[in-house]
Specification:
The chain is mostly beta strands. Helices cover 10% and strands 48% of the residues. The protein has helices at 101-106, 108-114; strands at residues 17-18, 25-31, 36-53, 63-72, 77-80, 82-100. Strands 1-6-3-4 form a four-stranded antiparallel beta sheet. A two-stranded antiparallel sheet has the order 2-5. The longest helix is centred in the last third of the chain and has 7 residues, at 108-114. It is globular. The chain starts with 16 loop residues before the first strand and ends in an 11-residue tail after the last helix.
Length: 125
């Protein structure tokens, strides 16, 4: 069961963010904690090409859910970056979940079954 301390660190989880090739784009405005590992999960929609997303394995060319762990060695807001593999893709993300690895491990079954969060399904930081 989720506790009051479990929070989605993404300040606007249902917003749509357009990414830019080879540039880090912030997913949240909340600073990260140096030396912390986070679960980063979002719906990605790729049109017009194929991309690889830093921190993940494989290539993406359609709409799907992407999740990965990210170790952070700075205090900048968590960001995402991709590189173009083919075409001239447009890449957007939405339904963003960012939580600490500890929150994820403590609530893995619930988090995996829900898949994503809006401000209504998980308290925001």
């Amino acid at each position: 069961m989720m506790s009051d301390d479990d929070t989605n660190l993404c300040t606007s989880p249902s917003s749509t963010i357009t990414l830019q090739a080879d540039k880090w784009v912030h997913l949240t405005t909340v600073p990260s904690v140096r030396g912390m590992t986070y679960l980063v999960s979002f719906d990605v929609n790729v049109t017009g090409g194929t991309v690889s997303i830093i921190g993940t394995q494989g290539e993406f060319s359609a709409r799907q859910r992407v999740s990965y762990m990210m170790y952070v060695d700075n205090s900048s807001p968590l960001s995402v970056n991709y590189s173009v593999k083919s075409g001239s893709p447009t890449v957007t993300v939405t339904n963003i979940l960012i939580c600490t690895q500890a929150d994820y491990q403590a609530n893995k079954t619930l988090l995996d079954s829900i898949g994503y969060f809006s401000g209504d399904t998980m308290p925001l930081a």
